[in-house]
Amino acid sequence: MMLEINNLVKNYGKKEAVKKINLSVKPGEIYGFLGHNGAGKTTTIKACTGLIKPTSGSVKICGYDIVRQPLEAKQNFGYVPENPYLYSKLTGREFLDSISGIYMKGKRNDALKRIDELLEEMQMTDDADKLIGTYSQGMRRKIIICAAFLHHPSVVFLDEPTTGLDASSAKAAKDLFRKHADKGSSILFTTHILEIAERLCDRIGIIYQGELIAEGTFQELKEKFEKPGSTLEDIFLNITEQNSKECNER
Ligand SMILES: Nc1ncnc2c1ncn2[C@@H]1O[C@H](COP(=O)(O)OP(=O)(O)O)[C@@H](O)[C@H]1O
Ligand SMILES: [Mg+2]
């Protein structure tokens, strides 16, 4: 497995944000982590990327433990944060070049080629030499997506990556994710939008109040939880409601 999350727990004081989550993502797989606001998606990703320390449990990236072998683990993943920080005084291209200096040291020609390729794929070639300070939210998002894929990472974490993207940019982003996964990488993708999970993900996990309450392909979840005439939204509500009842009965 490229990504393995084992019994991950994260408490913020008394708040149990993530409760014993287990999941793994295979090579070539796009895994959609679907849940309401506040479900624990960002907290899980932050623990996976080493930004916060788990209360207990562990995360392995390509076999490297993110807490005990952070350098090795970090070389193997790319990350699009929910609220990325970008230097407004750099151009998009300069920003990517500075990131490549960290991840692709000594491979500058490869890096420059890769930057051009990604800018083109994300429809940012024409704006690449403008200052980030002048970018729209969508353009910033596209640059940060380019940055996450720069060094051909084996695992990519995407926290609500399509926020702020127009339809055409969202399509470009999805194509990039698929192409990258098809080369054997694993992608963990968070979203609260069902349609995105349905269209893009090979497997979906539903997180509800910090717990992974259902997992499977979209088709499997549909067969298991669908009632006659129900829409996608109904299925999702059905799963989460069923779980809240079980919680109350306990
Ligand atoms: N730094 C923090 N301190 C205290 N509580 C937090 C912190 N970060 C997140 N939380 C809480 O943890 C829960 C999960 O948050 P989060 O992982 O951001 O959810 P999601 O990304 O699914 O919307 C929420 O109830 C949120 O308020
Ligand atoms: Mg979040």
**Number of helical stretches of at least 4 residues:** 9
Q: How widely separated are the two ends?
A: 34 Å
Count of beta strands: 10
Mean pLDDT over the residues? 91
Strand content: 15-25%
- Helix and strand element order: EEEHEEHEHHHEHEHEEHH
Q: What does the overall shape look like? A: globular
Taking the sheet with the most strands, its summary is:
6 strands, mixed
Helix content: 40-55%
Task: Tag the structure with descriptive keywords.
6-stranded mixed beta sheet, 4-stranded antiparallel beta sheet, binds magnesium ion, alpha/beta
Explain what you see:
By secondary structure, the protein is of the alpha/beta class. It is built from nine helices and ten strands. It has a six-stranded mixed sheet with strand order 6-7-8-3-9-10, with helices on both faces. The protein has a four-stranded antiparallel sheet with strand order 2-1-4-5. The chain starts with a strand and ends with a helix. Bound molecules: adenosine-5'-diphosphate and magnesium ion (MG). Residues 12, 15, 17, 35, 37-43 line the site of adenosine-5'-diphosphate (ADP).
